[in-house]
Amino acid sequence: MADAPDVLVVGAGPAGMAAAWRAAQSGLRVTVVDDNPAAGGQIWRGGPPEAQAWFERIRSVDVQVINGARVFQQLRPGTLLAETNSGVCELNYSSVVLATGARERFLPFPGWTLPNVMGAGGLQALVKTGLPIEGKRVVVAGSGPLLLAVAAYLRRHGAGVVLVAEQASVSQLARFGIGLLRHRKKLLEGWELKKDFSRKGATAQSKTEYLSSCWVSEAHGTEKLEGVTLMRGAKRWCVACDYLACGFHLVPNVELAELLGCSIESGSVKVDAFQQTTVANVYSAGETTGIGGLELSLVEGEIAGLAAAGKHNAARELFPVRAEQRKFADLLNRTFALRGELKVLSTPQTIVCRCEDVTFERLQRYTSWRAAKLQTRCGMGPCQGRVCGGAVEFLFGWRAESVRPPVLPVKIESLR
Amino acid sequence: MPETVTLVVNRIAVEVPAGSMVSAAILKSGVNTFRRSVTGEPRGPLCGMGICFECRVTIDGEPHCRSCQTVCRNGMDVRTDG
Amino acid sequence: MSSKTYDAIIIGAGIVGSACAAECAREGLHVAIVEAGIVGGGATAAGMGHLVVMDDSEAQFALTRYSQQLWDEISYELPREVEHDACGTIWIAADDEELAEARRKEKFYADRGVKTEILDAQALAETEPNLRPGLVGGLRVPGDSVIYPPCAAQYFVDQTLAKGASLFLGVAVKAITAEGVLLHDGTSLSAGVIVNSAGSSSPALTRGLEVKKRKGHLVITDRYPNFVRHQLVELGYLKSAHTLTAESVAFNIQPRRTGQLLIGSSRQFGVDDAQVDAPVLTRMLDRAIEYLPGLGKLSSLRAWTGFRAATPDKLPLIGPHPEHERLYLATGHEGLGITTSLATAKLLVAQIMNRETPIPVTPYLPARMAREPVHA
Predict the structure, then answer these.
(1) What's the rounded Cα separation, in Å, for the pair A176 and A165?
(2) Up-side HSE of residue C174: CA atoms within 13 Å toward CB?
(3) According to the model, what pLDDT value does residue C243 have?
């Protein structure tokens, strides 16, 4: 590889792309590394039309993009190691921007491990990467604005989205709606989505109901999903479906930041006004620093890129935009807070840790994550607690502990 | 660039649009069970983004490959564990 | 400030402490266990869970063999989570010198009633096809097994609690006093007997203890059932365990019942921090790949470290402290804590109850380490 870049950006989603563009625009040498085959992260997977302007920007500056690279260890401060299909890549840098995004929060309920029960973003990602969904019956459930986006996307691709079950209450959502008044663009987007749902789409088979205070209490099927039971107040009813797209909002991917020694607060990477973490020369931007949506990720990325390039005045100019977007983020997180009923969906036999098949009843006897892990091996599987972690935090209040390399599974030959 | 790619899933040929992930190809071939959990439950993809490890299958002889993170290539040999 | 009285206070709920607590409770003693962290969270969590007979010395053989027999006796009653698996060990000979060593071991064990089997190169390759070609043979010890130690420690603690013991969890001992212990939260406990079974933390509580931390590394893989069938250890392991020099690695791999592989081993003296040492990890994995070339392609999930409690003569301390009237020691087990935990418990309780010990205890007595008087 050529000379070490000035700025290494980990993650090629919106925040990473924004940081890379600004840093490169400021004249620095920039390398972006990402584990997916192409840039875009989750929200812009496949490079949709709305992302094209940003893809153009990245192409217009001198940025090296390394795809299919999974960062797993810090060799020493200033050097990260990434595994690719052809071996290990040593990534040296002067500054690094961690734009590692977020993942969905999964909560266990009876039947959630059946094939064709996926995350909301999960099913969308499958469809974006080639799964035919036309004519399939889908229930979208869980919590968060992602559900609307996913339902709309699936409808556009011909799925029969029967309903969207949002666990938040109508009053929470109304406050969100009112709150959206100051974020006009988002309000219009949301309104368009809702209107669309109440029509039979050109490709969609039926209209899509959007139900608040509603959640899936059970998924049914033998070898795969056949239907779900929904709950809404006193009402329970069953809906047959081919796929369940169910996710409960998002959880920041802070593992790499933790590995580098950055302070984590309330599950997000702590940053100052210039998106710098508590570790010198380490910046972070996007959902990693707190869930807040696309526009916030973009402006945070820009600020981080500018700050890494020493362009603090230019960065300051973006502070008002970020402040505005942060208000939306706060509104978002307040609205879609998870209700208590979701804690009691699991039966004693419901699996909480999917990697090691650890049931709810086995976990209940422990008072700490560490003891539970050691005794049941919950969280000790390949997902390294990324799937069950969000669940055990919600169910038991257990927070994940310190992170060790490798930050995701890698071949033995990459570790040496 | 070719429009489609043909790979083999459990000895059956499957044609998919170029750029598709192996996970989509497996589902398209009619297989829903990608692997069995440690207690034998059928499992398939959950997260779609490479963090849950439920979509693992054997690709070209190598076990534990995340199919949702692997782009289909012509002639790829995919075996599910179900 | 509260004060409670027990017959015995056990400091440390690792495999040794919990086994001792269970044995004390079985004896009818009213027991208190004090554990600063979680049950089985120290070296017990970090190590390999290999129940192995060893022949470094007569004393080591006697202890491991007796303890292994005790494990065999209870194997049927161990909970499923302990994952007891009688997979056996193969000591691997890479050259003729090591094969000669294997034959020496075979004779040593045969003379003492332990059944083993010499494998030639072909037999070795047949039983463990993933080993590299060119190895000359090995010694198979079918009586060895593996367990998952944290669950065993929890099982022993549960047995102790079932007999009415008290467990003080998540609180550390501040000091061992003349009558008992003082905890960091102000609680003081008194007992006729105090047992320091705090592993690598034991010297912090008892001054002058000849117990030093010996750091080790481990890596665990994803599931690859039947990649190896026995615990595989290079005969050069003994050179590594013997040496008192700063740093050494040796090939040592364990198949878990889950199909995962536990890869070790490394030893470092004089290192206090628990971070994974990249150069040591590299050496350890390189060594493992030398024996199992296919290992490189396997997926690894975690790497971690732990601290063994090592004594100068490689034998544990089991018995009364030479100065302190009520204090007993059950520590210093280095890499054999899991194996010898049950024997340690029996030897300890026999001494507490002033009975004849089931095997001679002299080699393990703390008094052998006597230096200047220690003030409690």
Answers:
(1) 16
(2) 8
(3) 61
Q: Give the integer Cα–Cα distance in Å for C219 and C47.
A: 10
- The answer to whether the Cα torsion of A359, A360, A365, A369 is positive or negative is positive
Give C223's contacts in chain B (Cβ within 8 Å).
Answer: 38, 64
pLDDT, one tens digit per residue, over C319-333 is 999 999 999 999 999
**All chains having 3 or more CB pairs closer than 8 angstroms to chain A:** B, C
**Cβ contact (<8 Å) for A115 and B34?**
yes
Strand order of the β-sheet with B4-9 is B12-17, B4-9, B77-79, B56-59, B62-66
Contact C224 B63 (CB under 8 A): yes
What is the average pLDDT value for chain C, to the nearest integer? 94
Q: Over the stretch C91-104, which tens digit does the pLDDT of each residue have? A: 999 999 999 999 99
Chain B positions touching A117 (Cβ under 8 A) are 46
Instruction: Report the DSSP pairing between strands A227-232 and C137-141.
Output: unpaired
C299 touches chain B (CB under 8 A): yes
pLDDT confidence band for A202 (50 / 70 / 90): low
The model's pLDDT over A333-386, given as tens digits with 9 standing for 90+, comes to 888 999 999 999 999 999 999 999 999 999 999 999 999 999 999 999 999 999
pLDDT of residue B19: 94
Using CB atoms, pick whichever of C278, C288, C300 lies closest to residue A411.
C300
Q: H or E stretch including C97?
A: helix C96-111
Size of interface B-C (CB pairs under 8 A): 7
Q: Is C287 helix (H, G, I), strand (E, B) or coil?
A: helix
Does the structure show a pLDDT above 50 at C372?
no
**CB-CB contact of C333 with C16 (8 Å):** yes
Query: Residue C20 in contact with residue C29, Cβ under 8 Å?
Result: no
Nearest to A357 among B32, B39, B53 (CB): B39
Complex ipTM over 0.95 = yes
Neighbours of A184 (CB within 10 A): 9
Picking from B1, B21, B28, B52 by the largest number of A CB atoms within 10 A of its own CB, the best residue to mutate is B52
Whether residue B64 and residue C297 make contact (CB cut-off 8 A), yes or no, is no
**CB count, 10 Å around CB of A221?**
18
What percent of chain C is predicted at pLDDT more than 90?
A: 91
DSSP string, A115-130: TTEE-HHHHHHHHHTT
Sheet hosting strand A87-92, strand order edge to edge: A70-76, A79-84, A87-92
Least confident of A192-206, C124-138, C200-214: A192-206
pLDDT at C1 over 50: no
> How much is the CA Rg of chain C, to the nearest whole Å?
20
3-state secondary structure of C356: coil
CA atoms of A344 and C135, how far apart (whole Å) = 57
* Bridge partners of residue C263, in order along the sequence: C219, C253
Counting Cβ atoms within 10 Å, is residue C283 exposed (0-12), middle (13-18) or buried (19+)?
A: middle
Q: By the CB < 8 Å criterion, does C297 face chain B?
A: yes
Tracing tokens 């940053």 back to the chain, one arrives at: A271
End-to-end, the C-alpha distance of chain C in Å comes to 22
Q: Do A410 and C45 touch (CB under 8 A)?
A: no
- Residue A177 pLDDT: 78
List of chain A residues whose C-beta atoms are within 8 Å of the C-beta of residue B78: none
* pLDDT for A402: 77
Would you say residue A277 has pLDDT above 60?
yes
CB interface of B with C, residues 37-66, below 8 Å: 38, 62-64
Residue C55 per-residue DSSP state: -
List CB contacts (< 8 A) between B62 and chain A.
none
